[in-house]
From TrEMBL:
The gene is rcsC_5. The chain holds residues 382 to 635 of 772 of the full protein. GO terms for molecular function: kinase activity. Keywords: ATP-binding, Kinase, Membrane, Nucleotide-binding, Phosphoprotein, Transferase, Transmembrane, Transmembrane helix, Two-component regulatory system. Residues 20-236 form the Histidine kinase domain. This is histidine kinase.
Length: 254
């Protein structure tokens, strides 16, 4: 329990620091982008100069996208849990998912009929899925298939009794060795190298699952692919047909 508390405090501190830095950095990048756009209007019509300008703009935009991820990671406090239809959420973002992972990897979805709604922040869950899908893509440099599925089940691991739904993202990629698997959810842990990985993807998913009174569970073996499972409580006040972003906000009980 002591290590769990320490880990939670560490996450909290890192979250606050990250949020502050990302926020300031984002403002700086917005100023840079603004100046570059002004510069574009004044620049003589020279293709070489325009290419340099485009490079600078792209770099600043990539930086801005990164700060958005960091802000999303830090903004764990303002979750708006609601009844979310997982199948609807995933089909609603399938274009975004496919565009984010590129053409080399296929996405398959498997959702049973009559799956109960999950109690979770829909926007953050979309971000979590995006993180998992990008990780799966990165683990399949030769291409492959990502399977996004959902099922209902009992309480996983040490969670309180109750009804839970599991949203899983499985790949057929390189997998993780035991040491990587053990550390994968730590903030800033990455094996992707400087400038490629932030190490914030899985810690964001982990944070969302914990704050939603659920759990992120990872299964992986080298060569056998990876399965990430987000376990979430079934929505407590299911009313009719919940849609992502449109259902009532239900107060959380711990
Ligand atoms: P990042 O993707 O920026 O490295 P993450 O927190 O998302 O940060 O992941 C941390 C590490 O966990 C990755 O660098 C990688 O080593 C490992 N990992 C995550 N997802 C997968 C996956 N689907 N297959 C193999 N390894 C993975």
């Amino acid at each position: 329990a002591r290590t769990a508390l320490f880990q939670a405090q560490k996450m909290e501190a890192i979250g606050q620091l990250t949020g502050g830095v990302a926020h300031d950095f984002n403002n700086l990048l917005m100023a840079v982008l603004g100046s570059l756009e002004l510069l574009r209007k004044r620049l003589p019509d020279d293709p070489r100069l325009l290419r340099l300008l485009d490079n600078a703009v792209q770099g600043a935009q990539r930086g801005a996208a990164l700060t958005q991820r960091m802000l999303a990671f830090a903004r764990r406090q303002d979750l708006k849990p609601e009844a979310v239809d997982l199948s609807g959420l995933v089909s609603g973002m399938s274009d975004l998912l496919q565009r984010s992972i590129g053409p080399t990897v296929r996405i398959e979805t498997r959702f049973p009929a009559g799956l109960p709604a999950a109690q979770v922040d829909a926007n953050q869950l979309e971000l979590a899925l995006l993180n998992l899908a990008v990780n799966a893509r990165d683990a399949m440099p030769e291409g492959g298939t990502i399977t996004i599925a959902a099922r209902e089940g009992g309480a996983p691991a040490d969670l309180p009794e109750g009804r839970y739904v599991c949203l899983s993202v499985a790949d057929t990629g390189l997998g993780m060795d035991a040491e990587t698997l053990a550390r994968a959810q730590e903030p800033f842990f990455t094996t992707k190298g400087v400038g490629k990985g932030t190490g914030l993807g899985l810690s964001m998913v982990h944070g969302l699952a914990e704050q939603s009174h659920g759990r992120l569970m990872l299964r992986s073996r080298p060569g056998a692919g990876t399965q990430a499972e987000i376990w979430l409580p079934v929505a407590t006040a299911e009313t009719g047909e919940p849609r992502p972003g449109a259902a009532a906000i239900v107060p959380q009980t711990v």
